[in-house]
Amino acid sequence: MLKLKPTLFLLAVLSLFSDRVSAAIEFRTLSVNEGLSQSTVLAIAQDGMGRIWMGTQDGLNCYDGYSFTVFRHVEGDAQSLGDNSVNALFADGGLLWIGTASGLSCYDAATQSFENFRLEGRNMQVADIAATAGGDLILATDLGIVLFDRASRELEIRTYLTGISVHAVCPSRDGFLVGTSNGVYTYSSTYGNAVRILPQMARYDIASIVADGDGYWVATHGNGLYRLDGALQVTARYDAASNPGLVSNYIRVLKTDSAGHLWIGTFDGLSIRDPRSGRFERYVHTSEPGSLSHNSIRSIFIDAQRGVWLGTYYGGVSYYHPLARRFGVLRHDPTRNSLGDNTVSCIVEDPESGSLWIGTNDDGVNLYDRRTGRFSEFNTASGSLLSNNVKCVLPDGRGRVWIGTHAGGLSSMDAATRRVRHYPVNASIPINNSCYALLDGGDGTLWVGTLNGLLSFDTAAGRFSRHLCADYEPRLGSLQITTLFRDSKNRVWIGTGAGLYLWQPDVRQVMTCELTPVKDETSPPAGISP
């Protein structure tokens, strides 16, 4: 999966996920300042490892969510990229097929090397790549349709459409729809023949074709957008004059997302068609933060995580994710009522009020009222805690909130009166007077994780004692306990500074979970049932 850079700020979910594209979407820009080799992005794809590949006019880029790795042609190195100008990308398992300004290249992730293919004595510019049912590749090129036979590793120009510039190939029910400089054709990879269809488009330059439900969308350079039904008949035409949300009739690229939105990249900006209303929304570059990086859109890709990548002409990549607007940021602001500290250690929902108890590193516990949006602070300054470094919070559902701190012991707050009592874990050594993890024992006791082992706390008597688990596994009596979790089978997982342990109450046994590589990621560790 693609990893995005972590943020230091608390993210709070403000609403549930929706399939609707917000009318106020914001983009993040990636360009040469972030390590992209060149700012015109002509092709985008995602490989099986979740990495995003971007083809530019000066090299192939691999983005892992943090940084770019750039691949270029190296003179004299047959295993380097065949050409620096990359027009098309097609991911196929562990292979990435690359259409360049002079031929076809293939990157093998296993060997981290390229294999290059060219027509003897001729350059061909590859604009699009698709796979046949048999696994061979169909290439849209300026020489016509070119077939790549994966068994023989050879390229062959098909006699039909020879000399016609082909821009797009789209799999269809009976083969492929082919967009050319002279309209739309159907193409059979089995028989190698092409047939012109839609004579009303014969004089138009077809830029892109995508399947959508039981029909297709066809984009033209200068004559807008067409809708075809399953019988390949035109059912509608959309132009900028009659559809204000359609930015331009000069369309370069189309893509549909899983919710049925049609993303339309044009010379003059982006349009998105809503499948329910049929209306178009337009997005153009402005001076405002979060706008498109450039109006001229050359490529669109929607990744496995539903993120949308827009490659532009000299504007790098604009990235959008439908969840981006579903999150708000709660951060410290000294000028108003806000979160007391940006370093957050834990978040727990109060079972009675629905408010959030937020443990911080330097401001104790903050109670966030989600109805009013206001914070209340409980810290050393208010006399509530003995330490502002909060490690864990546990509302017990019986009117008390238990708060574990570093070097401030365990505290109990009455949720109604806000009165607090303190219970030192180890008063003789201040740093050991720490509580890092809490779990309700369900019997009037708390499991307490400390810097010096696992303890049991009697909530009625207010006393600590050695925990039963330490009798079964003596190391739990001295290890640093960092986290406690009870699963759906009533087992308790104990995270320590030296590994993971599992308490199984039915058999009264503590198991050590060895940290070893697991080849089958769907299988649990040996000895532990799912």
TrEMBL record:
Gene3D superfamilies (UniProt xref): YVTN repeat-like/Quinoprotein amine dehydrogenase (2.130.10.10)
Signal peptide segment: 1-23
Source superkingdom: Bacteria
PANTHER family: HYBRID SIGNAL TRANSDUCTION HISTIDINE KINASE C, TWO-COMPONENT HISTIDINE KINASE
Record keywords: Phosphoprotein, Signal
Keyword rRNA-binding in record: no
Pfam families: Reg_prop (PF07494)
MF annotations from Gene Ontology: phosphorelay sensor kinase activity
UniProt name for this protein: Predicted periplasmic ligand-binding sensor domain
Segments forming a coiled coil: none
